[in-house]
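Quick one:
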Amino acid sequence: MSQITSPRRRLRFLARLTTACLALSAALLTPVTTAGAAGVDKDDAYRNLGAATRSDWMKDVASDTWLAAMSLPGTHDTLALHGGAIAQTQEDFGDSADTLTAQLQRGIRAIDIRVRVTDSKYFAIHHGPIYQQANFDDVLSKTQAFLKQHPSETVVMRLRAECVYSDTSPGIGDCVNDGLNITPQRVESIFADYVANYPGLFYTPSTNRPTSAMIPTLGQVRGKLVLGSFDNIGNDSGKFGIQTFNSHKEDNWAPSGLPEKWNDVKANIDQAVGDTKGDLYVTYTSASNGLVRLPSDYAAYINYLLMQYLNSGGGNGHLGIVMMDFPGWALVDDIISRNANYVVKGGDRAIWVVNSDKTYVNTLYNRCMVRGPEFDSSKTGGLVTQHACQSSPPSSHQWGAELPTTFDGKGYYWIKAANGKCLTVPYNNGTPPSAGTQLFWWGCESRWFSENQMWNIIPTKVGTANGYRPAYMFINYWTHQCLSMDPATAAASGGKVTQDACPQ
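Output:
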């Protein structure tokens, strides 16, 4: 019988980094719950970021969560506000990076900054040849101010040298750097000066050469600006940022039409959900076909489809970084909600700690689940109860999770007592019983339709005095209720172990 160490479930999983010296591996499997629908119509997904109420959404996310495991809402061409409809990509909250501050307050955590060299030593923010009434100092100072006020958060920045270099003839729509002989090396040197002028702002490994940094945990980058990549600086582009940032990127910015772009976006989202290596995925939902299809046209279409897809259970997992034009509040909420499995929760009667001695301990009442008294002398079944946990637990206190081998359990588990019997929801003549129904142990059925014995195992984290520890929710396939305890008998030995509503 196996105890729970890294349970798999029906949906896809994300790998976790196992050592600081190796690439991400598949050691920790992190399943995903279906997030609730956030929005209804196009206005919830497009050009309406809503109120400034998401400044601290990362504060409850466990610090050991790898950045690659998270779902981060971002903006493409973050400060593109000027140049008319053909150039604007974001809702306008003001110049000098005031728009950036507004985005961060509304939950955006990945930004796309395009710079042009001026006076041979400064960066100005551009979208092609159009100056966006902001400078790189505005970006860094506003980001620094936000992170100082909200130290639980992090911001990931894709940085791009927007203009052609002095040895390249500019084309229509290209910008040209201001200064003589501006080379990729000079752009890199200017960036180094900015990093030095803002000590403590950047996550240092992401700005150090000669190689990109290992993917960090959230705890390593709280309060920091992470350089995801520095693009268009020649062969040195890959020597900055964090690993795999541009390895799984969807950025078809000039598709043949709206359906092609949506198919590309959906495909990359689905690949992110199905990733088992722990790589970063970046999906740009943005596109433009000049005057034929403006950025706003694509945003209105793609954002709405993406919101609908996520609301319906699509993309049910880690999405990676999603860079959007004109995002709406509901789409941002949909993306943030995909981090729910990394949120540290308090004790709840439907959340259990599983110890190495195979005891299942309720996190609200600190009581152990027990194989209770038999129904009759046949000992074929009996009640499931709870008792005070013991330092040397008897076999009646021990349980394990086991995948069925006699049939395809569809990724669901038996929860088996030490005597080999299964945790069972009463069959109730085929009618799913109500919340609060006491569970029992019974011989494990050997066919898939015995759904009352099949359990989905959802890892979560529960807060402790010193931080948090791993815990689990167990959801019955048939009733969609969680393994829980009866509040009325929680203080009594032999109290009921039941099924009840799952915590949100």
